[in-house]
Amino acid sequence: MKTHYGIYGGQYVAETLMAPLRELEAAYEAAKKDVAFAREFKGILHDYVGRESPITYAKRLSEHLGGAMILLKREDLNHTGAHKVNNTIGQALLARRMGKKRLIAETGAGMHGVATATVAALFGMPCEVYMGAIDVERQAPNVERMKMLGATVHAVPEGSATLKDAMNEALRDWVTNCADTFYVIGTVAGPAPYPEMVRDFQSVIGVEARRQCLEKYGRLPDEAIACVGGGSNAMGLFAGFLDDPEVKLVGVEAGGKGVASGEHAASINGGRLGVLHGAKTMLLQTDDGNILDTYSVSAGLDYPGVGPEHCHLHDIGRAEYTVIDDDEAIAAFDAHCRFEGIIPALESSHALAEAIKRAPKLGRDKILLVNLSGRGDKDMENVMRYKASSANSSQV
Ligand SMILES: *Cc1c(COP(=O)(O)O)cnc(C)c1O
Q: Which domains, and CATH codes, for the chain?
């Protein structure tokens, strides 16, 4: 089992959490070797999520930019509208296999909470979601969705009352109730085996995309581009191409108001080495090690850390990590709506913005594969508010 990625990863947890982590490791190792588990996972992805998701040639946008061909991996077409459900289905199946009766999760923007509540309903399991009290207020529609799906939402008032505090509470619940409870983590972060396990469940994105690209265009893409919050949609895409050194891997972090402003969520480009949620990784922290609050126009990208495997891929030069700021992401969102008739998630708009920068510099024979991690219906209000406030500020 993989516990470390270079100097990153590991299991930096209290002694009391070692036993449930060992149990999880053993169960996951056994499940990985079990063809029946893989078959059931694949079946649910097909029948319930609607996989496989297609790749779409963004023809008008590519022609407008006048360079490389932009291909979109359409995770926005999944049931629930994003990639997160691939992972929650995998973990819920594992929970059932382990005889766990109850699912718990942490959530920031609420999307992972909704994805977990969704599979809890599908599998008939009770579900409790921890969410910072401030996030509960900011993300009211997702709180309602979780409740509608039958989950209980706990508002966490401690600390800064955001994602990192919710994660601490979920860990506390898990320690207390691990005999019957499975902790569903939403990204390639947390202590081993979560980063590997979440990557494996999301690797369906990259494995499908690689095959689809070969079938349809007779060759691999030149670059595979994805946004990075905690890094699960990006690791899922990259997993399909790690053994193809000719495919450049590009992760895009949220630059918010610019890395220099301090208001961003770019853990690799603007963070430092530390320990967060049981893993050694790059994260946003003060000089004395307090976790900083993150900022991005896209709520789903504002996790203060990043998956350990990304830090390693960065160190060894296998993947490149860039930054896209709020304005660039909103411009890409607009372009994508008007040229392609697809409203992208603001998270995914960061990856699109990177492709829009790169495409004109490349020949028409090049292929940029972008992971469209989710659809943007959830972001409408946010986009309108952002535009209204930037219109106001440009008047002064
Ligand atoms: C949550 C989310 C992300 C960010 O999470 P990762 O783990 O980095 O993939 C990206 N896109 C969408 C649509 C999301 O909901």
A: 14-45+84-191 (3.40.50.1100), 51-81+199-395 (3.40.50.1100)
Contact 133, 111 (CB under 8 A): no
pLDDT, tens only, 322-332: 999 999 999 99
Tell me: cis bond preceding 193? Omega within 30 of 0 counts.
yes
Length of the chain: 396
Q: Over the stretch 332-387, which tens digit does the pLDDT of each residue have?
A: 999 999 999 999 999 999 999 999 999 999 999 999 999 999 999 999 999 999 99
Question: Cα 116–194–109 angle (5° rounding)?
Answer: 40
State the closest ligand 1 atom to the C-alpha of 233, by its place in the atom list counted from 1.
Answer: 9
How far is residue 396's CA from residue 394's CA, in Å, rounded to a whole number? 6
Ligand 1 pocket, residue 108 CB under 6 Å:
no
Q: Does 373 participate in catalysis according to the annotation?
A: yes
Rounded to 5 degrees, what angle do the CA atoms 63, 67, 71 make? 70
Q: Give the pLDDT confidence score for residue 356 in this predicted structure.
A: 98
Indicate whether this model's pTM tops 0.90: yes
At 63, the amino acid letter reads E
Closest CA to ligand 1's atom 13: 374
Q: Coil, helix or strand for 159?
A: coil
Q: Among this protein's residues, is 390 annotated catalytic?
A: no
